[in-house]
Amino acid sequence: MHAESASEWKQIARRIEEMGYSTLFVADHYLGPGPVYDRSPHLPQNLAPIAAIAIAAGATERLRVGCRVFAVDFHVPAVLASETATLDLLSDGRLEVGIGAGVLRDEFEALGIGFDEPRTRVDRLIEVVRLLKAHWAGEQMDISGAHVRVKGYAGIPTPVQKPHPPIMIGGQKKRLLSLAGREAQIASINFVPYLPTPDGLEPWDEMQRRLGYVREAAGERFSEIELETSPYDLSITNDVKGAYEAIAARRRVPVEVVPGHPNALVGSPESVAEMLLERRETTGISYITVPAAQMEAFAPVVGLLRGT
Asked: Residue 225 in contact with residue 187, Cβ under 8 Å?
């Protein structure tokens, strides 16, 4: 998301609410122009997330707000717990908390933050999730982990939503998706490759494997978890062939692998709505996060799907 003033940001938030979207997510990225940004796969976001979430919540009435996702190493964990509880309180219970371990080494190093190996970063994420839940419950804190050490006080404020704001955790590997199955209310499935995986799985087979990680770890609570993903390659258009060719060129893959891919969504509003309903039936995925650049084009699909 990008805005150059408070009034512009408020207008964006209100427009998203008017179009019928359920949630406005910002991201946890901080890089401005320069060589590190030039290598980044992410579009720039000129608004820091916590302040942007607060202003968006204040400008709207029903719209849920959140971050997709906070990288735990960018924040002091105990402070993040209080900040998120405050955001939930001041938004009257409209916060969703995406949280992850961070993945971009260049971004960490540009910000002067150490980039540990994956196991250590996920270990830290697990401890931060424990801290968030303890703080949000208003418990006396006594956490002494390898990465999070907090004790001697109760978490304040406590959030409006009980037992706590929804937590979103996602990724592509078993350990992260298993954590989502155990601890999250929203499990986010990361981008699936267009070409077969090294062990030969086609895209939808890989998607089902990832969903299986969540299902196995969740056990009986699986039905309570919302499954989320994003159509990173989204085009609302009647020129389906041209859109597929553009996606293939951008992704540098054969055009024949694009149609029907889990993260590609191409067609008229009516056909895209039908595809999403079919995918919900076959996979259980019901939470779709639309790229900001496509929010106006996708709005008719939101209208078609509202209440389904």
From this structure: yes
- 168, 66 contact by CB (below 8 A): yes
Looking at domain 6-232+268-300, what is its CATH homologous superfamily?
Luciferase-like domain (3.20.20.30)
User: Cis ω on the peptide bond leading into residue 157 (within 30° of 0)?
Assistant: yes
pLDDT tens digit string along 160-186?
A: 999 999 999 999 999 999 999 999 999
CA distance readout (Å), 111 to 36, 104, 281: 10, 11, 42
Domain extent listing, the chain: 6-232+268-300
Among residues 41, 7, 21, 45, the alpha carbon closest in space to that of 94 is found at: 21
User: Token pair for residue 124?
Assistant: 């830290």
Contact 230, 263 (CB under 8 A): yes
Q: What is the pTM of this model?
A: 0.95
